[in-house]
Amino acid sequence: MSNKKRVIESIKYINAVLLCVVWVFILTTIIIFSSFSFSNSTLSELIENMEVNDLFVHFIGSENHYFYVDNNKHEISLSEIAFNLATNIKVGDVRSLLGREIPGFSIYDTEIAVAGEGTNYTNLPMESSPPLEVLLKEREIAHEMLAKEKENTDSKAEDPSQTAEGEKNVYIYHSHSWEAFSPLLKDVKNPDEANSSNEKVNVLAVGSKLTEELSKRGIGVEHDKTNVTKGLQERKWNYNHSYKYSRERVQEAIAGNNELNFLIDIHRDSQPKKITTTTIGGKPYARLFFIVGKEHSNYEQNLQLAKEINAKLEEKYPGISRGVFVKGKSQGNGVYNQDLTERALLLEFGGVDNELPELFNSIEAFAEVFGESYWKGAEGI
After folding, report:
1. Could you tell me which residue, 356 or 33, shows the higher pLDDT?
2. Beta bridge partners of 264
3. In angstroms, rounded to a whole number, what is the distance separating the alpha carbons of residues 85 and 306?
4. Residue 120: predicted pLDDT
5. What distance in Å separates the CA atoms of residue 150 and residue 159, rounded to the nearest whole number?
């Protein structure tokens, strides 16, 4: 054999060995990675229900359709998975190619698990992330708006037919406690400037109203009114640490009360009023929606909870919800403290332009639906 042929044969042999090593590495990586990150996905179910030989035949069939094991099943392409793991680009989804190149485009990676009326990728939830110095700047309050709303809401509460007998089962808190509503502030036009530490004009007002409405229905509530802006400032943290800060509060509350079954983190959106408001039965409502983080083991339970409550809301108040959205780390925090329980909700009530009557109508609607499900027991929610 000539030297030239020997070299060619050696190269072929080396390439074959390298190819085998690469495929073994890819298969091992996928199996290990799937067991941690995709425990409930199609891939893990596929692996769990297959013999080793069938597994290799299946993956070969995903690349060469002649070897399909079952033509009625959707085959997972091993090369597509490997390419996605290596580049974070999904074949057939141009958004994954452009998402990191165009500023703000990554928001469209958000998954619409349940689309509310009119919801699509052009009006997804929008989160403002102003720097800490903007959050610390206090705005003048529109006192006349608060006085007007107080006249409309002062009423004596009736005794609930059912009570939690002193137990507090719901924990309401606010990772972005500074999020305020522009109609309650004077001369605020930019959504990023609608921030305040005053609990009468920010999302704490929403939390207080929800606490009141749930209490009317006999549900024990603990409402955390912590000023997160101040907490971040004291630690020299920025906006991106807000969920880390609120997590400490939630963990402390859980440690001190093992009866806490529900966690509700209340926010407001930054979309304009035309997107965040609707009219139902002649009354104005601030539309609400649910955010579910998918980067944790409780993801599916929390998603199911959000879907069920959303469906019951839509049944009674058609159009009140903008839907249920799923986010990973590339679109936000990805966890939102929802790994701490199987009954965690991140609720966004209305948007930056909504007024208190619209918000309070929605809170009453949510409290009604939540209360009915709550008293039906664990199987009802």
Report:
1. 356
2. 172, 345
3. 29
4. 87
5. 21
**Gap between the Cα atoms of 370 and 217, Å rounded:** 10
> How far is residue 179 from each of residues 20, 298, 354, measured CA to CA in Å?
55, 27, 12
**With b meaning 16 or more CB within 10 Å and e meaning fewer, what string describes 171-200?**
bbbbbbbbbbbbbbbeebeebebbbbbbbb
Reported pTM: 0.72
Show Cβ contacts of residue 83 under 8 Å, excluding neighbours closer than 6 positions. 89, 91
Polymer length of the chain: 381
DSSP single-letter state for residue 7: H
Q: How far apart are CA 303 and CA 107, in angstroms?
A: 19
CA distances from residue 263 to 203, 259, 267, 365 in whole angstroms, order as listed: 16, 11, 13, 18
- The residue with greater pLDDT, 345 or 189, is 345
Spatial distance between the Cα atoms of 33 and 82, rounded to a whole number of angstroms: 12
Locus of tokens 């959504």: 191
Query: Where along the chain do its domains lie?
Result: 3-87, 132-380
Query: What topology is assigned to 132-380 in CATH?
Result: Aminopeptidase (3.40.630)
What lies within 8 Å, CB to CB, of 28 at 6+ separation is none
Residue 79 one-letter amino acid: S
Pairing of strands 221-223, 170-173: parallel
Mean residue pLDDT across the chain:
79
Confidence tier at 167 by pLDDT (50, 70, 90) = confident
Average pLDDT over residues 282-310: 95
Side-chain half-sphere exposure of 233, counting CA atoms within 13 A: 14
Q: Could you tell me the two tokens for 50?
A: 């297959």
Cα separation of 281 and 287, whole Å?
Answer: 14
Say whether 164 sits in a helix, a strand or coil: coil
User: How is residue 75 annotated by DSSP?
Assistant: P
**pLDDT tops 90 at residue 254:** yes
Percent of the chain at pLDDT > 70 equals 61
Pick 42 or 242 by higher pLDDT: 242
Cross-strand partners of 111: 326
